[in-house]
Automatic annotation (TrEMBL):
Name used for this protein in its record: YbaB/EbfC DNA-binding family protein
Native source organism of the sequence: Labedaea rhizosphaerae
Gene3D superfamilies documented for this protein: Nucleoid-associated protein YbaB-like domain
Biased composition (Basic and acidic residues): 121-132, 139-150
Record lineage: Bacteria, Bacillati, Actinomycetota, Actinomycetes, Pseudonocardiales
Key words, A-Z: DNA-binding
This protein's record includes keyword Magnesium: no
Amino acid sequence: MPGIAEVAVATDHRAGVDGLLAEYRRSREQLAAVHRELATIAESATDADGLITVTVSARGSIIGLQLAEAAYRVYRPDQLARQIVLVAGMATTKAVRAAGRALEPVLPADSDPDALLRGTADLRPDEYKPPPEEEESMEERSWLQTERRP
């Protein structure tokens, strides 16, 4: 038969396990609530002329595109494509900010939600910035034709 000390240890252990399980359930429910909130995020942006409106999800996927009839007259196809991409980028910026606000409650206090969403949360700026483009040196290049033509 277990002694009083053994029963007390078992009771303390059980209370600790119950506390951990309760905390896990709270965290899991909070995470589920954040996922539900992220699923509802839809942000729109419109170009300065009001001809193009793009709506994106929290992940930046285009979920809506509205083009005024005049957009086809104002823009050539390549210009229209560039404008759509530009407006989609503006909407994505808004959606990422909204997603960051939704994530804040479940992140540690010193976390940057935007960096987390960009995938750079644990990187230094020099680790994720692209290296500068190198200019092509013309010093070693011969401008004289070396092949003979028949």
